[in-house]
Amino acid sequence: MDLCLPSKPAPEFSYEHQGKRHYITPPPGNIHGEQFLMVAGDSEGYKVRCEITVNSQQYMDYLDIMVKPYWAPRAASRFLELVRQKYYDGVAFNRVVPHGLTQFGIARDFATRTKERELTIWDDFPKGIKFEPGYMSFAGSGHDSRTTEIFIVNPGVSEAQLRMFGENSWETPFATVLDVDNSALRKIYSGYGDMPHFGGRGPDSARIYEEHGYTYLSKEFPKLDYIDRCYVVDEVGLSDLSAGDL
Question: Is 121 helix (H, G, I), strand (E, B) or coil?
Answer without folding.
Answer: strand
